[in-house]
């Protein structure tokens, strides 16, 4: 009986069905996410168990798919583990049948699956262990981080050239922070800073508007740009009300899954290139399948 | 750059692709050569046109170069060239139809550039769009080649390599996208529609990669799957592009 369960849970067919199911439910989630952008993106900054406690049950009619997705991903992880284990044990038993090169090529898919499991584990660690807080800042703001006091000394905006069609738009913002011990920290967009085990990110939020606040928050640009622009182009070189309303924030993050995730990502890529360039060269019609 | 802000070049590119496609139906070798030459000239101009999108006055912005509706025909053109050189069969003519259709779609798309926000001015963003759109192009080529198996009973698995490498390219995009997302927003994965729909496509093609190992999934069934998956990719990607049509743009 146990053996039959083991074989079923590790079967390739089940793996395919789980991947499909995962694809379908994530897609369903993306449709819900279009209407309730702010609701679902709270998950980015909360531990999943806290999110479930606060938001899942009261809103189960729109969030049910997340539970299904986690279940699917759990079984996919299990399926990948059993499948990889079975394949590796068979491969090592028949090791002598292959030359070293052929053996390496045959073992690569299992390694890819192994690192895929690590990617899933990395995501899992992020979901259950992420710590995140936001601090709205302006010059003079003080806040505590890991028992240390930090102060925003200066905020400097850099704009595109005046001759450019992009004039009056912010190119970069640099925030100068100092700690109580006099350490200087420079924070800007896309340049996070590590401080006492936390990562500090510069972010900007559009202010809440009474009329269409919900709509604004739930808009998202396909290519990840925020909907807002920083300064009104037609403002005749004056800082427009729009620009002054923007709220700069420092996002403080501690992500326990990050290192595992990034390392596994790059190893997977390396292995994928190695495997597919030998098993399925781009220019060859009749590919071979190495099982 | 001479093509910057001159969308006339896109219309010229479209015309060259049109005539290239038109002449490609002739079986005479000379006319076929003319068709290919027109395509190569069109492709070169198309490349210069999208390059020109990156020169915004005195500034250079990279993300407008790789904006989906304009970058996709270039990727498809590149794959068509690649197919012509390495496969040496007649399928490049079919791929030309794709190039033509997606250039046509670009003609109706707002041609100005979305002003780059500070979080988009990074190598990771460009790498993300490049690899994602190249993956889409591979999936679309897979769609055309798989259609031959389903509708013309051609016994060829040429579509498979495009889907495999499309998947590899898509995996690259997911990884560099995660890194970009982390540097910009502090998360490697976001529960936003954009990330979720990307993950959905990745899982779908991950499932496809496993199908050849299942006995019941013969060539025709896999080809059908490839067609369905590629149509799903078009639906998702053009869904995003339509959404972006309403954004404030410069020029165009």
Based on DSSP secondary structure assignment, what is the total number of beta strands of chain A? 8
Number of contiguous helices of chain B: 8
How far do the termini of chain B sit from each other?
16 Å
Structural class of chain A: alpha+beta
Strand order of the largest sheet of chain A: 1-8-7-6
Radius of gyration of chain B: 19 Å
Notes on the structure:
The complex is a heterodimer of chains A (291) and B (252). Chain A is α+β, with helices and mostly antiparallel strands. Chain A has two domains: 152 residues, no CATH class; 123 residues. Chain A has nine helices and eight strands. Chain A has a four-stranded antiparallel beta sheet, with no helix packed on it. A four-stranded antiparallel beta sheet of chain A has the order 2-3-4-5, with no helix packed on it. In chain A, helix 5 runs antiparallel to helix 6. Chain A is globular and about 70 Å long. Chain A starts with a helix and ends in a 12-residue tail after the last helix. In chain A, 24% of the residues are buried. Chain B has a domain of 173 residues. Chain B has a two-stranded antiparallel ribbon with strand order 1-2. In chain B, strand 1 and strand 2 form a beta hairpin. The chains are: A alpha+beta (291), B mainly alpha (252).
């Amino acid at each position: 009986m146990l053996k039959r369960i083991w074989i079923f849970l590790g079967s390739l067919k089940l793996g395919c069905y789980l991947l499909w199911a995962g694809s379908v439910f994530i897609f369903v989630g993306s449709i819900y996410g279009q209407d309730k952008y702010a609701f679902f993106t709270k998950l980015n900054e909360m531990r999943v168990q806290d999110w479930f406690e606060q938001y899942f049950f009261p809103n189960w009619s729109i969030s049910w798919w997340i539970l299904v997705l986690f279940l699917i991903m759990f079984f996919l992880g299990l399926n990948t583990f059993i499948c990889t284990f079975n394949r590796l044990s068979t491969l090592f038993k028949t090791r002598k049948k292959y030359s070293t090169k052929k053996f390496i090529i045959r073992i690569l898919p299992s390694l890819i699956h192994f690192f895929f499991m690590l990617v899933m584990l990395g995501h899992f660690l992020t979901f259950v262990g992420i710590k995140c807080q936001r601090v709205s800042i302006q010059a003079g703001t003080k806040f505590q981080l890991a028992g240390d006091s930090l102060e925003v000394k200066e905020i400097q905006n850099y704009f595109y050239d005046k001759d450019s069609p992009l004039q009056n738009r912010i190119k970069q913002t640099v925030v100068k922070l100092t700690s109580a011990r006099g350490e200087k920290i420079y924070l800007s967009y896309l340049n996070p800073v590590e401080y006492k085990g936390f990562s500090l990110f510069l972010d900007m939020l559009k202010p809440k508007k009474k009329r269409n606040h919900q709509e604004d928050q739930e808009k998202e640009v396909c290519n990840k740009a925020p909907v807002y622009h920083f300064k009104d182009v037609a403002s005749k070189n004056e800082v427009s009300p729009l620009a002054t309303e923007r709220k700069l924030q420092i996002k403080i993050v501690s992500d326990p899954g990050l290192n595992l995730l990034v390392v596994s990502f790059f190893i997977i890529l390396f292995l994928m290139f190695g495997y597919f360039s030998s098993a399925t060269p781009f220019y060859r019609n009749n590919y071979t399948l190495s099982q | 750059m001479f093509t910057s802000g001159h969308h006339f070049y896109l219309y010229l590119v479209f015309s060259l692709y049109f005539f290239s496609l038109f002449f490609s139906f002739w079986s005479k070798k000379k006319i076929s050569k003319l068709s290919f030459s027109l395509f190569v000239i069109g492709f070169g101009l198309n490349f210069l046109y999208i390059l020109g999108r990156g020169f915004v006055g005195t500034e250079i912005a990279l993300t407008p170069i790789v904006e989906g509706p304009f970058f996709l025909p270039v990727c498809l053109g590149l794959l068509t060239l690649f197919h012509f050189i390495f496969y040496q069969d007649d399928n490049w003519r079919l791929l030309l139809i794709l190039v033509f259709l997606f250039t046509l779609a670009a003609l109706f798309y707002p041609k100005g550039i979305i002003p780059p926000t500070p979080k988009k001015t990074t190598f990771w963003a460009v790498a993300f769009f490049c690899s994602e759109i190249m993956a889409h192009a591979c999936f679309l080529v897979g769609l055309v080649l798989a259609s031959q198996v389903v509708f013309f009973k051609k016994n060829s698995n040429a579509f498979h390599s495009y889907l495999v490498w499309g998947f590899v390219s898509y995996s690259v995009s997911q990884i560099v996208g995660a890194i970009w997302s982390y540097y910009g927003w502090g998360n490697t994965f976001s529960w936003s529609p954009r990330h979720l729909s990307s993950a959905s496509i990745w899982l779908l093609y991950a499932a496809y990669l496993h199908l050849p190992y299942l006995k019941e999934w013969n060539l025709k069934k896999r080809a059908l799957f490839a067609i369905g998956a590629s149509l799903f990719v078009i639906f998702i990607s053009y869904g995003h592009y339509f959404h972006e049509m309403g954004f404030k743009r410069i020029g165009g």
